[in-house]
Design brief:
This protein is rod-shaped. It has about 120 residues and is mostly helical. The protein starts with a helix and ends in a 5-residue tail after the last helix. It has helices at about 5-15, 25-35, 35-40, 60-65, 70-80, 85-100, 100-115.
Amino acid sequence: MDTQFLWAGFQMLNCRNSHAHTPLSWLVAFVRKAKPKFQSAAKAPPKQAAPAPACADPVILMARPAPFSNKDFHEINLQKIIGKDAYDERITAIQKTYGAGRYAARLAVHGQAVKDGIIRP
């Protein structure tokens, strides 16, 4: 609390009640009861956040089924199952079709493999 706020409020209260001199206990009681004006106003309820727009990027949608954390395991596992050449061909196809970078294409290939049941997440 602001000391100037307390002192001004205490003096105003005593002037209003026609008290030129007051005991110290009155000041202590006033301090316990006094609340600053800026705290008395009620807070407005928080505004609801707008829902996230639906993702329109097909590469991101393809990559969602595969968790990002074990992307290296997916790569090794998928290369064992379908072969390194077929794995590289899938990445290249996604890069050409959607204009994605190699990393995004890798994640999309992993997501499609999870979706098709070739590997597990």
